[in-house]
Amino acid sequence: MEDMTCGRPTKAGTPCWNRRISNRTAGCQNHATELERATEAAYWEGYRDGMRAGEEHGRQAARWEAERELREAEARETASRNHRERTPDGRQIVTVERGYAYAMPPGISVAVGDQVSIPAPYWHGSSAPPQRVTVTALGSSYTGSLVTAYPG
Ligand SMILES: [Zn+2]
């Protein structure tokens, strides 16, 4: 096995027993020459460049994939944790086409596929007629306050 000790003379006159910086240098951290340090630095520079060129793309892709999966898992977990089919006062919650959630009036329940009327968006003006949309799911993971939808 290669001798990895520095071996350069110390102040005490004995050979230095420190480990060489690497197998590219003859000296240890204390005794390496400028040339050895430059050689070592150039090696790592090249190594990093090689890593960047050769592997960065793959590593970045793997990182994005892992982050995306994590975000999706978190979103699923949050959605299932927040999913509720009734408001605190017992009204049915429905999700309609376009994904928005509404609460039905007290005592009224609808099924998936039923039509409900929802208020027109405010930018249609306060006199705009309600819009008819289809219930696409019962319940919602939306946690904000819900506008009321009416059957039919
Ligand atoms: Zn040394």
UniProtKB/TrEMBL annotation:
Region listing for Disordered, in residue ranges: 72-92
Compositional bias (Basic and acidic residues): 72-89
Domain of life from the UniProt record: Bacteria
The protein's name: Uncharacterized protein
Species in which this protein is naturally found: Pilimelia columellifera subsp. columellifera
